[in-house]
Specification:
With about 325 residues, the chain is α+β, with helices and mostly antiparallel strands. It has two domains: about 5-15 and about 165-330; about 20-160, 2-Layer Sandwich (Beta Polymerase, domain 2), CATH 3.30.460. It has twelve helices and seven strands. Strands 1, 2, 3, 4, 5, 6 and 7 form a seven-stranded mixed β-sheet that branches. Helix 2 packs across helix 5 and helix 7 (about 185-195) packs across helix 8 (about 205-220).
Length: about 325
């Protein structure tokens, strides 16, 4: 079997199945309907809309494995009109209480209040996790569905729509190149590799942003092997020594950059440095993993040129783990 066919199979296999997505959508639709009813009947706040967010909405989600969770993210937009800051600061707990009322038979540990969202764990079925983030809508921001997430460490600017479009617009751009490599699928590949990195694994938004930075420089080709080599070549040359900043929703020239060792700014909120917690050691270690992956990719290319397809599979399995071999083989 050719490496091209292997990659076609692998790219399809790491995506959640249609049945998995359909079941996730069914469970999420039920939660959305009930949450709207609960908030309306309570009357403490006005819930304007609930939007799908995160990897599922961007079509970059991965099939569930030991390394990869399958989560659905929802942005619950509340009105802040007439409400005090003190009352709006309680939205996270308020959302947690409403979700508890929707699922009264669930155990307390099935609800986790995080910094920005309430996570609901569904232990049976497909093992779905749903994160519901309360967002206070603010139309004065000048961005579609802009708003503020009330957090204990300060309200954070966001827009579900803008984050989704950050990926979908680049996916549309990549579709101008014939072949299987589209931007969202490229993000999925980078996320799969990233999630193999144990304690160095980064959040999905990091993968979105650094893949977008690479895409702006190298684009995509008509095959997976070359596209991935170009992306990882960009990573190894950049080494996260220069700020990664985007001009989709703010002017990069007007941004005051943080003094953190590594700067990868949120594409919507320039005050949010996704890599704020990175140290110089983190950067060096992550770049080392990138170099290892790139070296394996170059060995794979050499094997392909020599007609050694099995050797190439071995190399790509070093990049993506043994799943590359098992998920890409013939049924």
């Amino acid at each position: 079997m050719s490496i091209k066919t292997r990659f076609d199979r692998f790219a399809s296999a790491i995506r959640p199945t249609d049945d998995h997505i359909a079941e996730a959508n069914r469970q999420t639709a039920y939660m959305i309907e009930k949450l709207k009813d609960r908030v309306a009947s309570d009357g403490s706040f006005t819930l304007i809309k609930i939007l799908s967010a995160g990897s599922n909405a961007k079509f970059t989600s991965l099939r569930r494995t030991e390394e990869n969770e399958f989560d659905v993210d929802l942005g619950a937009y509340y009105s802040g009109e007439g409400a005090t800051k003190e009352s709006l600061d309680t939205l996270l707990q308020f959302t947690r209480d409403q979700l508890g009322d929707i699922y009264p038979t669930k155990a307390r540990e099935d609800f986790e209040t995080k910094k920005s969202a309430v996570r609901v764990y569904f232990r049976g079925g497909i093992g779905l996790n749903v994160d519901v983030a309360p967002i206070i809508r603010d139309e004065s921001l000048g961005i579609e569905n802009g708003g503020w997430i009330p957090r204990s460490d300060g309200w954070r600017l966001t827009s579900v729509t803008c984050h989704n479009e950050f990926v979908t617009s680049r996916t549309a751009q990549s579709s101008r190149v014939p072949g299987p490599v589209k931007f969202n699928r490229l993000v999925r590949m980078v996320k799969w590799w990233n999630n193999q990195q144990d304690d160095l694994a980064q959040p999905s938004i990091f993968c979105d942003c650094v893949t977008a930075a690479a895409f702006s420089e190298v684009g995509v080709t008509d095959e997976w092997q070359t596209s991935l080599r170009h992306v990882f070549s960009f990573f190894r040359q950049h080494q996260f020594l220069r700020p990664i900043v985007f001009g989709d929703h703010y002017d990069p020239e007007k941004v005051t950059l943080p003094t953190d060792p590594v700067v990868v700014l949120d594409c919507v909120n320039p005050a949010n440095n996704i890599t704020a917690a990175w140290t110089h050691s983190t950067r060096e270690a992550y770049v080392g993993r990138i170099q290892d992956a790139y070296d394996a990719m170059m060995y794979a290319r050499s094997c392909e040129l020599d007609g050694d397809e099995e050797g190439a599979v071995d190399c790509w399995s070093e990049v993506f783990g043994p799943a590359f071999r098992t998920l890409s083989k013939e049924d």
